[in-house]
Amino acid sequence: MSDSLVERYRDRLPVGPDTPIVTLGEGGTPLLRAERLSEQLGLELWLKFDGANPTGSFKDRGMTVAMSKALEEGAEAVVCASTGNTAASAAAYAARAGLPAVVLQPAGAVALGKLSQALALGARLLEVRGSFDEALTAARELGRRGTHVLVNSLNPYRLQGQKTAAFEIVEELGRAPDVLALPYGGGGNTRAYALGFDEAGAGEPVIVAGEAQERRSTLASAIRIAEPAHAAEVAVALERTGGRVVSLSDDAILAAWRSLAREEGLFCEPASAAGVAALRAGGVERGALVVCVVTGHGLKDPETASRLSSPAVPVGPDPDEIAAAAAR
Fold this sequence. Notes:
A six-stranded mixed beta sheet has the order 1-2-10-7-8-9, with helices on both faces. A four-stranded parallel beta sheet has the order 5-4-3-6, sandwiched between helices. The termini are far apart. The protein is an alpha/beta fold. The chain folds into two domains: about 200 residues, Rossmann fold (3-Layer(aba) Sandwich); about 100 residues, Rossmann fold, CATH 3.40.50.1100. Strand 7, helix 9 and strand 8 form a beta-alpha-beta unit. The radius of gyration is 20 Å and the shape is globular. The chain is built from 14 helices and ten strands. Helices cover about 45% and strands about 15% of the residues.
């Protein structure tokens, strides 16, 4: 298998023979059978772990196409607004392309793992005194002025790259699942999956999108987006597939996050567990074949993992003391 997502799906993507492909080996992420959660939920549940992409999130699928096209079209710089994952991906692919990247982030709203990535990769990081939505408005204006290419999911090339996850699922399962569950922040990924399954021609799953009840303040920072940019298109996709949005408390998201880690061995950032949380809310027919998209790696948000887990227990280098402490 080629190490480039664009090369694998070139005939389904808006690239030509002269497009310079900017790649870090994205795509081809694991589809894992969730044995324990399948039994608990009465489903045949599979986990599409897109946290295995190069920068640790699904954003890389779209960024390879968006950055390749930006380079082809003569871009001199790129810009994005981000709660973290887009920033890390844009910074990495811009560095790979040799382009400057400007990242606008809402002040105090980005997890340490993502912030560290964007800084280490050389992005110009600017903290906006305002919300993500205000940062995105500013990034869009820079894009309209022609000084920077916008690489948020409003860039249509992003969605083209992200749709490839649907192709991979169909290839591995031999068909589309009955249900697709995933987190719902800005809605770009939901829209991209709907596009991908439609193009795959293997049927469209019912889409179950898990959003935070408190969009402005949820601890699931990757979906802390008050006004989803793709809300209208998501509504159309849900109506077409018979799907729905499930609004989730932070407690429900964290419970699903713990289940993924402790019962399936999958460490993800809290927002990435929103799809599982939505499934646990019920409403899916027993025995259904379900794919749940896990969008980002747990190392994206180490502070939350550390804060919500039991601390290490200090012991001396004595086997009996160690055995006693381990048994507690």
